[in-house]
Write a structure and sequence with these properties.
The chain has 83 residues and is mostly helical. It contains four helices and no strands.
């Protein structure tokens, strides 16, 4: 999940970074709500990856992450029965 965000460091602007970051945060929010991940740990990991990829937009990265985590937490992901 965060590896795709971090890989954006090599991509130029305009390649969908914010969308990838939001998708990763949304998924992580669902996993947190489903009690598969710990909120602070996953938020820190996403911030680290986003800062590596786009260090000039820290405030925007954090807002995207926080918004995505909040939206994803409204839809808990259940992994029962999955390998």
């Amino acid at each position: 999940m965060t590896s795709q965000v971090a890989q954006c460091a090599a991509a130029p602007e305009g390649t969908g970074f914010t969308e990838k970051l939001n998708r990763a945060a949304y998924t992580a929010g669902g996993l947190v709500a489903g009690e598969h991940l710990e909120l602070n740990a996953v938020r820190d990991e996403l911030i680290d990856a986003a800062t590596h990829a786009r260090p000039w937009q820290v405030a925007r990265n954090e807002k995207t992450i926080d918004d995505g985590l909040a939206a994803g937490s409204a839809r808990p992901l259940r992994l029962e029965g999955r390998p």
